[in-house]
Design brief:
This protein is α/β, with parallel strands linked by helices. It contains nine helices and ten strands. The strands form two sheets. It has a six-stranded mixed sheet, with helices on both faces. A four-stranded antiparallel sheet has the order 2-1-4-5, covered by helices on one side. A hairpin with a 2-residue loop joins strand 4 and strand 5.
Length: 240
């Protein structure tokens, strides 16, 4: 029987602006089970990335709580990895040293860091570029390095915030195949934010649709296809 890895309980998020206060998330409830690949789709500004940042411990919750295996998420933790849309690689470090960065912060010895970094570079088909510098790689290759770096910390759950949004369509398809393969081989629990309903249908074992700071539909790809339950989801499906 699978366990709940990550859960949101009546989560609200407020941002205070000069003009006043906005409510970015409105009582969000969500459970993420072990080995699920959850894709969250919705328009810009609906709270997708905000939820991921709070789940990673990078933003505080205004009301409610986010739990990792029953423990409140207050600060970043190694068990919860995150991949951003920007590569965020250190330009003065080699590919291998970028992948090993989290392990270095954790105090892992140099030889073990190199071994683990090579293992995950193999996983994303970049072992031959271990000694290369980030500027020598294409955008898609740099994103694969960012994925390898997150995986090298051996997170229990991997959060991915539109990780393929800045690459061309051919590279995007390759990266989708790559992360799908990693999910099948490694059994990672993944929460993946995207604007692209096709990407969600291709990758997800479950799809969560958000709009205006709330969840408006939650189901398997088959259920979303067969029963687009709201006007917003019907519009998404009709535009495919």
């Amino acid at each position: 029987m699978t366990e709940t890895v990550l859960s949101a309980r009546r989560v609200r998020k407020r941002f205070r602006l000069r003009e006043g206060e906005i409510l970015a998330l409105k009582e969000l409830d969500l459970d993420v089970q072990e080995n699920e690949f959850i894709c969250i789709v919705g328009p810009s500004g609906c709270g997708k990335s905000t939820f991921l940042r709070m789940a990673a411990g990078l933003e505080p919750v205004s009301e409610g709580e986010i739990l990792y295996r029953g423990q409140p998420v207050k600060v970043p933790r190694r068990e919860v990895g995150m991949v951003f849309q920007e590569y965020s690689l250190l330009p003065w470090r080699t590919v291998e040293d970028n992948v090993a960065l989290g392990l270095e912060f954790a105090g892992t010895g140099r030889e073990e860091r190199r071994k683990v970094a090579r293992e995950y570079l193999e996983l994303v088909d970049l072992a031959a570029f271990a000694r290369a510098m980030p500027h020598e790689l294409s955008g898609g290759m740099r994103q694969r390095v960012a994925i390898a770096r997150a995986l090298a910390n051996r997170p229990d759950v991997l959060l991915m915030d539109e990780p393929f949004g800045a690459v061309d369509e051919i590279t995007r398809r390759r990266l989708q195949e790559e992360i799908g393969k990693i999910h099948r081989q490694q059994g990672e629990t993944i929460v993946f934010v995207t604007h692209d309903i096709d990407e969600a249908l291709r990758l997800g074992t479950r799809i969560v649709v958000m709009d205006a700071g709330r969840i408006i539909q939650d189901g398997t790809p088959e259920e979303i296809r067969e029963n687009p339950a709201t006007d917003f989801v019907k519009k998404l499906m009709s535009e495919r």
